[in-house]
């Protein structure tokens, strides 16, 4: 039955005998294009045609014409694929008007009309009046099928049960990635799933994960090297001067600069006492040369003795007092122990960066036991070591490193929350320059709007789970490419363990249901079942006694 195209009307169902349609191509259109724009266009859909398809056995065809579904249009010898972003009812005609975003195009097989060789981008646009057809599961297989590039499979393409969603590892890691999602959406399990798949693909890889809550050690017991304050053994002398100041300099304002100048001079003198210093001639304060904390305090004491007045000695006393306080505090032993003065730099880098990996390509660095005052310094040192290693190893056989940062908004905060710490600067630098040197950054956060401006936009692949906060949604929308906007509108409606993946790591924007992860590979991040746990009783005295002992010993 043919209707007039004027006033947004179109062919509803055209018999195959009437149309120049190849055998096997869809014979039932669901509408026609009414307006064309650069990335976004409009189509008028027939409610009766959509309703008639809703009982189809093919879930892709059954969902045709709904928000988030895909449609296709024939342009010459190609099929153009578009995503339905939004629907509204036209009051005058009673027809459904759809906003569609073009995703890419594929060739049309001459005999069957089937889609093949799908690629991102559009070379030729349709004209108004072009018929719109539903996309079938067979089409989706062609659209989302992984090509020959190295990839990992992390779930199924929504709404299908058997089309696998692939992430292209080189494109994803080469231009950084971000995993976003509100608390309770399955973000930690999704991160563990992606990292497990990467480790399976590259058992000799080099992955460093900063774990602020101690969740991921449970997930990587078999294929990861696990570090916390008990075995990290991170030498304090690996800190650069900026990080030294964050730990040792307590003053503010003009006094801070005075203290920093004194500290720089004294650290340089302490480093020059090491026999390694003789090999390099003129040393800088930034050079990672071992020195003794006792030498540093002794030099500060000697320098203070040269002062004429007691007021001149105040900066020296502040520095000496802070250093002695840290030396005496058992919580700082993992970093400021007298045992860490020998030259263990090669051993430390080898352990943390998995060089070689021995089949355990990922280091999980649990910083939950690190005193909160220096957590950001510890993360800064680890992140900077990754970057500095990449810079100074140029000319050697390349060993790219992936640095994954959980709770990234803590360490790379936006200007509103900025605290001027060194960790924000180094992670921002890695985001901007890391790929030149073979350093990839993976950011995991539940508050993307609290991330530094520009860092999220440096991530070439964005994997977004449900975000409940309007500000977060707007922030992610601004960082996404134009053609993915339709997918973004569904972010608040995603179920747990579902995500939208866009960017370099996927062939085209896609909604994915993540695979279930085996129990022994999941992070320890499950929510407590209050109704269940509050039924348990008995043994409270012993629980309190053990807890208070650990509390007073500060975990030691």
Automatic annotation (TrEMBL):
CDD domains: TrwB_TraG_TraD_VirD4 (cd01127). Pfam families: DUF87. Residues 152-386 form the Helicase HerA central domain. SUPFAM superfamilies: P-loop containing nucleoside triphosphate hydrolases (SSF52540). This is DUF87 domain-containing protein. It comes from Sphingomonas suaedae.
């Amino acid at each position: 039955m043919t209707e007039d195209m004027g006033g947004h009307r179109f062919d509803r169902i055209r018999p195959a005998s009437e149309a120049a349609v190849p055998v096997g191509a869809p014979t039932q259109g669901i509408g026609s294009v009414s307006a064309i724009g650069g990335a976004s266009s409009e189509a008028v859909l027939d409610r009766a045609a959509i309703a008639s398809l809703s009982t189809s056995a093919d879930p892709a065809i059954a969902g045709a014409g709904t928000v988030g579904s895909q449609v296709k249009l024939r342009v010459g010898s190609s099929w153009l694929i578009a995503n339905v972003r939004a629907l509204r009812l036209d009051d005058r005609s009673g027809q459904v008007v759809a906003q569609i975003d073009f995703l890419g195009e594929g060739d049309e097989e001459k005999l069957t009309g089937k889609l093949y060789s799908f690629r991102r981008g559009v070379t030729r646009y349709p004209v108004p009046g072009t018929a719109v057809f539903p996309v079938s599961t067979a089409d989706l297989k062609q659209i989302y099928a992984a090509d020959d590039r190295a990839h990992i499979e992390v779930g199924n393409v929504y709404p299908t049960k058997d089309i696998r969603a692939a992430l292209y590892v080189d494109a994803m890691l080469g231009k950084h990635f971000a995993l976003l999602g509100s608390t309770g959406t399955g973000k930690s399990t999704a991160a563990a799933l992606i990292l497990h798949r990467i480790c399976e693909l590259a058992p000799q890889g080099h992955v460093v994960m900063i774990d602020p809550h101690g969740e991921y050690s449970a997930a990587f017991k078999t294929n990861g090297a696990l570090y916390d304050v008990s075995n990290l053994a991170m030498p304090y002398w690996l800190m650069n001067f900026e990080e030294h100041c964050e730990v040792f300099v307590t003053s503010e304002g003009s006094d801070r600069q005075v203290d920093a100048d004194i500290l720089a001079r004294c650290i340089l003198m302490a480093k020059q006492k090491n026999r390694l210093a003789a090999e390099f001639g003129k040393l800088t304060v930034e050079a990672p040369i071992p020195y003794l904390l006792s030498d540093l305090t002794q030099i500060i004491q000697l320098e203070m003795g040269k002062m004429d007045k007691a007021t001149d000695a105040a900066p020296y006393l502040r520095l000496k007092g802070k250093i002695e306080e840290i030396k005496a505090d058992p919580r700082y032993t993992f970093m400021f122990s007298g045992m860490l003065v020998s030259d263990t730099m090669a051993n430390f880098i080898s352990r943390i960066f998995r060089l070689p990996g021995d089949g355990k390509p990922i280091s999980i660095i649990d910083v939950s036991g690190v005193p909160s005052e220096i957590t950001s310094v510890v993360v800064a040192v680890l992140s900077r070591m990754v970057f500095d290693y990449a810079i100074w190893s140029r000319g050697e056989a390349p060993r790219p490193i992936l640095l994954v940062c959980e709770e990234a908004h803590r360490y790379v905060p936006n200007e509103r929350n900025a605290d001027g710490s060194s960790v924000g600067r180094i992670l921002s630098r890695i985001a901007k320059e890391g790929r030149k040197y073979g350093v990839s950054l993976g950011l995991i956060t539940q508050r993307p709007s609290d991330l530094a401006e520009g860092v999220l936009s440096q991530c070439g692949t964005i994997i977004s789970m449900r975000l409940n906060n309007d500000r977060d949604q707007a922030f992610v929308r601004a960082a996404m490419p134009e053609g993915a906007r339709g997918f973004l509108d569904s972010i608040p409606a995603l179920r747990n363990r579902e995500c939208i993946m866009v960017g370099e790591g996927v062939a085209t924007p896609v909604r994915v249901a993540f695979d279930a992860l085996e129990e022994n590979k999941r992070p320890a991040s499950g929510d407590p079942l209050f109704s269940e746990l509050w039924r348990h009783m008995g043994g409270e005295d012993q629980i309190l006694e053990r807890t208070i002992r650990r509390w007073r010993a500060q975990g030691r």
